[in-house]
Design goal:
Number of helices: 2
Shape: elongated
Structural class: alpha+beta
Radius of gyration: 14 Å
Helix content: 25-40%
Oligomer: single chain
């Protein structure tokens, strides 16, 4: 069974981004929804101007191809930030 695959024991499975509320969104059961993530090697997950630009481009592309962009998650050392939540609190 796939549950015994070695990748299930990878340390990244315990990363804080896996516990992000967007992972529990009901629409995640639909195979065509997505919420990409990227890491910041500095450890600070604060979205950069480049993260915001990429998110905007992803939203535009997702709209064209009909795949809803749920969120874009930026991962730091001990924390992950939702760009959608960050934008709503910083605009």
């Amino acid at each position: 069974p796939s549950n015994n695959h070695p990748s299930n024991n990878h340390p990244s499975n315990n990363h804080p981004s896996n516990n992000h509320p967007s992972n529990n969104h009901p629409s995640n059961n639909h195979p065509s929804n997505n919420h990409p993530s990227n890491n910041h090697p500095s450890g600070d997950p604060t979205p950069s101007d480049q993260d915001l630009s990429v998110t905007e481009r992803l939203e535009q592309t997702a709209e064209v191809v009909g795949i809803p962009l749920i969120d874009h998650i930026v991962v730091g050392v001990d924390k992950a930030i939702s760009i959608q939540e960050w934008l709503s609190g910083n605009q």
